[in-house]
Design brief:
Strand content: 15-25%
Helix content: 40-55%
Number of helices: 10
Largest sheet: 5 strands, mixed
Number of strands: 11
Radius of gyration: 22 Å
Distance between the termini: 25 Å
């Protein structure tokens, strides 16, 4: 999106309008709202736990106290997020835009609760997942929405949507996309963090352009046919050899991304693999075959590949959940985020 928007935004707008029009004809309905799925390289995500020690643990938690604590938690978490991102990329903290937040879990003295109101206790903790991006990128999304005459219902990370939609409670999610590969760690059903590496399916397309002297469209078409098993055995062997080095680089980048997650506990033994790049022959086999000496593993990885429509279904499910009645804690968090965004 970043490069397309800067280089040829009118063409991008035209393509989006055409796709939306075709979808509305197929559905037999029109809408003025849209959900935008953004890759992890542009839309960041982080889960943080906030602990609050109550001065009067014997008194029941009421609505006013809960509001004050959640608002304080969100402000402190966002301050930490923009400070970390500012140090990472060298921009001012004011350049970070908070998009949304999801309250993943609330606990009173270590016990998980849906609504803390009415409970007594000393320690109140919240696990909150925030999504955020740079202001320039957010401005681009708003420009896109204006050009399409649509209201942004939600800007979502596909990995975050998948984490909430899938039944896997402990796994590593990998979205092997075109420009980048996004990696997410899920423990006990909670999305703990997202990493992104700048290598995706387009790297393999460029390999065919370089080694075979093909135009971009021809190389992409050949890569797709190769992934679908529609090339001769001789061509398959040749392309496999071309891709061998790029696949090793991708695996090494994945190992680095995984190593950046907390090493306090072993990584889950399940890799859930999605994205167009995951269809390349050898990806699943190599993920299961690599020994991963630098990672804290309790057992070899088992790899499960997502279906093509899983990401779309997860995003639809996230959009539908916006219409559902929110919990008291989530409603308070949404209000706190709105105050930060103003």
């Amino acid at each position: 999106f970043e490069n397309s928007f800067k280089k040829n935004r009118e063409q991008l707008f035209a393509v989006c309008r055409e796709v939306i029009h075709e979808a509305e004809i197929k559905a037999g309905a029109e809408t003025k709202e849209m959900i935008i799925n953004v890759s992890g390289s542009a839309l960041r995500g982080a889960a943080n736990i906030f602990h609050f020690s109550r001065e009067k643990p014997d008194e029941k938690i009421d609505l006013l106290e809960l509001k004050n604590i959640i608002q304080k938690a969100q402000w402190k978490i966002f301050d930490k997020i923009r400070k970390n991102l500012s140090e990472e990329i060298g921009l001012a903290e004011t350049e970070v835009k908070l998009i949304s937040g999801v309250l993943l879990e609330a606990r009173v003295d270590g016990c998980k609760v849906v609504n803390p109101i009415g409970f007594c206790g000393k320690d109140l903790s919240f696990s909150i997942f925030n999504t955020y991006c740079l202001l320039d990128y957010w401005a681009g999304l708003r420009h896109l929405a204006k050009a399409l005459n649509r209201k942004i219902l939600m800007v979502a990370s596909g990995l975050q949507a998948l984490a909430q939609w899938l039944n896997y409670k402990d796994c590593v999610l990998i979205d092997f996309g075109g420009r980048a590969t996004d990696v997410a760690l899920i423990r006990s059903g909670i999305l703990e963090g997202v990493k992104s590496m700048n290598i995706g399916g387009q790297s393999f397309t460029k390999r065919l352009m370089t080694d075979l002297g093909l135009a971009a469209a021809e190389a992409e078409e050949m890569k797709i046919k190769y992934s679908q098993g529609e090339v001769s055995s001789q061509a398959k062997r040749k392309i496999t050899e071309f891709f061998r080095k790029d696949l090793r680089i991708w695996l090494k980048g994945l190992e680095v991304a995984l190593s950046e997650f907390s090493a306090e506990r072993p990584l889950p033994g399940l890799l859930v693999l999605g994205g167009g790049g995951s269809l390349l022959p050898g990806v699943k086999r190599n993920l299961e075959a690599v020994s991963w000496p630098g990672l804290p593993l309790s057992q070899p990885f088992k790899v499960v590949r997502l279906k093509n429509d899983d990401m779309i279904e997860a995003l639809i499910d996230s959009g539908l959940n916006l219409k559902n009645k929110k919990s008291v804690c989530q409603a308070i968090l949404d209000r706190a985020i709105h105050l930060i965004q103003v």
